[in-house]
Amino acid sequence: MDDPAQGPWATDETTQILPAAAKKFAAFAAFAADVHATMNQMQARPVIEEIQLRGVFLEEEILLHQLDEHYIAGPDDRDRHPCRWMTVCSLLGISTLHRTDNRSLTAISPIAWAFFKNAFAMYAELIARGPAISSCEALLVMALFMLRTADAGLAAQLTAAAAHMAHMLGLQKQEYYVGLDAEVAERHKRILWAVYILNADVTHRYGIPSPLDEESIVIELPEVEHCHVFSPGDHTARLARQHRGGILRQQAFFAVAQLRIHKLLERVSSRRLSMQESTDLLEAVTKIHQELEEWKCFLPTETQPSSRAYGTPRLEMPVAILHYTYLSCISKISMTAAVLLDMATLNPDMQEVQSSTSNKIFATSRMARARCAMAARGTLDVLLRLQPQPFTHLWQTLCFPLSAILVLLSETLAYPASAHAETDVELIHDFVQYLERLKSEGCEVHRLLNGCRTIWSIATCALIASQTDQKVTVFEQTRESICSKFAQVVDWLQLAEGLLSNVPMLTSKARKFFCDILELGELDENYGDFAPEILKSSNYGFLFSN
């Protein structure tokens, strides 16, 4: 008798009779498998680890222990243990945002902010007390909350306070760990590296110098914990493990690179360099580039940034942030090289700088800028491979694709007839469509969406004008005006953050830069023009302003 579970046709018979249906079923099966894998990962990892995107420094067991102590002590005990109070309240606020459907954020956000304001109420008490490892931990968790908002200014203040606290404790010195239990010592090291990573990230995004430089820490990188982050094997199991020490270790590597790049950019921006100084800086840029490429080559092909291998998995946010950071570092060092080579071209006394470099990638300014454009294309590829995320998760990373489309707009305007121009315009449109999907899901991105539509429209006009050979037009004058502005940009990420954050030096610069390019409408002087109302602290009775 036929197996009733098999149905009237065998699988291969079905494939022969109904090929279209079979293909649809196969596609659905692949989709179902992807959803199943994602659900397994979500179930395998607690929310406390999900929200620590740059590596886990606070484990679930420690938080549960703090919660037990908090409830045993009662509601009037917060003054005796401000660090515990701040940590618990901040995490409750983050978790509230993280597990809320995007359509419900408007209703739920006041509750999350109430938790955070309870935590921040003890800030002065924490700072006035003597330094402690729990103080660093509390400041880090508060910073994690603020990084989910448009208030980058306060996030920078909190990460800097954590760095100063770590300095006072001596966490960056090996002698601090002498005599500590091995497990306790490892936990304290993870907290130090988390402080270092967040401060380096603030420096990378906003140009605010870190209290911890790349030479101040003499302890080893964090342990990977019984697993190799990028070892071949099952993607689901591997990605689920990456939130542990592996991600923290990889982010620590990038943090060192980010701070080195920041110093190089600071020196180059002065534009007053001798030939020897320029040569030395170009060699330093080349060295960082080689280290970044070695990191990339260490990964299996399917997990590399910009990989288009068959069966390339969708990315979880911690891995996507690694890719974003790598590509952003490539973009910044490429622009640093471009500025150095531009200076050499304009100054006859520095002509030897170009001939002295042995790096084929940065042989000319044009090649360096092309490398920056390649990184921008890779950044948008990361976005399109990203698994569905809560909006407050996504917000922390939207600066990367926004900076990428600005790079591609610049490339399209400068070289509208190039082989990449049409693809670049399509990539900009892909980002616009991505934002349209977010808006349809209830995310407040209408300002960002309108601005990106304008960027896409400008890029499209440049492409059409080049194809129709219409040179003497009103648009041609506009194109040349925008091109001259873009030619002065060195740091695309900071330009993007000027539209998204509330760091005054960035927002004012972005406003002047885009005043005759984008239709900005009514402005909020305290925030970038693309910052959504739902992520502004001032709307919840918590104001950080100029």
UniProtKB/TrEMBL annotation:
<dbReference type="Pfam" id="PF04082">
    <property type="entry name" value="Fungal_trans"/>
</dbReference>
<dbReference type="InterPro" id="IPR007219">
    <property type="entry name" value="XnlR_reg_dom"/>
</dbReference>
<feature type="domain" description="Xylanolytic transcriptional activator regulatory">
    <location>
        <begin position="155"/>
        <end position="228"/>
    </location>
</feature>
<dbReference type="GO" id="GO:0008270">
    <property type="term" value="F:zinc ion binding"/>
</dbReference>
<dbReference type="InterPro" id="IPR050987">
    <property type="entry name" value="AtrR-like"/>
</dbReference>
<protein>
    <recommendedName>
        <fullName>Xylanolytic transcriptional activator regulatory domain-containing protein</fullName>
    </recommendedName>
</protein>
<dbReference type="GO" id="GO:0006351">
    <property type="term" value="P:DNA-templated transcription"/>
</dbReference>
<dbReference type="GO" id="GO:0003677">
    <property type="term" value="F:DNA binding"/>
</dbReference>
<keyword id="KW-0539">Nucleus</keyword>
<dbReference type="GO" id="GO:0003700">
    <property type="term" value="F:DNA-binding transcription factor activity"/>
</dbReference>
